[in-house]
Amino acid sequence: MIRFDSVTKGYPDGTLAVDNLSLDAPSGQISVLVGPSGCGKTTSLRMVNRMIEPTSGRVLLDGRDTASIEPAELRRGIGYVIQQAGLFPHKTVLDNIATVPLLLGRSKREARNRAAELLELVGLPQTLAGRYPVQLSGGQQQRVGVARALAADPPVMLMDEPFSAVDPVVREQLQNEFLRIQAELSKTIIFVTHDIDEAIKLGDKIAVMRVGGTLAQFSPPAELLSRPRDEFVAGFVGRDRGYRALSFASTGPLPLAEEPTVRLGDPLSAAREREKDGWILVVGQDDAPLGWLAAGGLTDEQAKGSAGTDLLNLGGTLATKAGTLREALDAALSSPSGRGVIVHEDGRFAGTVTASQVLARIETRATRLREGAIRSATGVCS
Ligand SMILES: Nc1ncnc2c1ncn2[C@@H]1O[C@H](COP(=O)(O)OP(=O)(O)OP(=O)(O)O)[C@@H](O)[C@H]1O
């Protein structure tokens, strides 16, 4: 665990970058520091590895005061990833990643083997190993930055806006990869961002800071969205927080409707016979949904052929049975047939659900939450 214990950082010009910060970032989890520009996020992060020394207060790492640990020794156990990766431009990708293992006394061969493993872990092909950073895309450079920080297998990682210099699509890929890697490695991570959506997606706990370096709220994302502590936090997490909170609410057992399907390649005449309201779902050999077919609108000529991918409407998103209310609602709202497609964990088609059915479930949940809030406000036990 990383503990900030009444940590303050002031500068000689009178700026209070961080003001009496106390919080515990739990081991094996991602704690996100989020807040407007200049609220002290980077300063807080850098006080963990002693790149910045606190004016007062202590930062404890698993109970040890970091002030009592030599900075070089401290940093060996702490990976550090920054915006735009900060790679050594004159070293190849492989040598960039191998730098820390070499410094730690591993042989060149061991260090390079480790670097090759890490390249794979962060989803980069080995063919990039010999390139220089300038020959990589921004997203690839960030992946190398993450691989380099992981090279010494540090228990702690500090990440300062690591994904903010890439476009939104690459950014989402990097975030997903990062969550996959964290599920495998369970590092203790402090992650800085100014983007509340990124914080909500990645954080196990989120610290919202305000300008002046004070902590406004430190809570799991669902709680931050449902119970912002004050006006500042409520404004910062955004107007659509009620909708976004659905990302943390599991659907529970949905009333799934059966749906006639045709397999890709089946005769379209069958689709015409089975369709309910003009739309029919096309599945692959493995029963995974591929898209909707407007069977009601087929010409007689088309109906003589078979169900091919060229006729499919791919607009609808899929939701999993064990997924969230937000996924289920999105599947229903985005489906051309108006029926949201729900799949099993292995991707097989499970059934469909309408938006009004998902909304009924949302309404039940909201009523339960309201009743719970009234009970806790009035002290009545259930
Ligand atoms: N060396 C310094 N001297 C004086 N003030 C400083 C110094 N370094 C940082 N500050 C101030 O401390 C405050 C916090 O800075 P910090 O970089 O931690 O903010 P941040 O939340 O990470 O901001 P951003 O999101 O813009 O990166 C800012 O007001 C900044 O101007």
Automatic annotation (TrEMBL):
EC number: 7.6.2.9
GO molecular function: ABC-type quaternary ammonium compound transporting activity; ATP binding; ATP hydrolysis activity
InterPro entries, per database record: AAA+_ATPase, ABC_transporter-like_ATP-bd, ABC_transporter-like_CS, P-loop_NTPase
Record flagged with keyword tRNA-binding: no
Residue stretches making up the ABC transporter domain: 2-237
This protein's UniProt keywords: ATP-binding, Nucleotide-binding, Transport
UniProt entry tagged with the keyword Iron: no
Family: Belongs to the ABC transporter superfamily.
PANTHER family from the UniProt entry: OSMOPROTECTANT IMPORT ATP-BINDING PROTEIN OSMV (PTHR43117)
UniProt-recorded name of the protein: ABC-type quaternary amine transporter
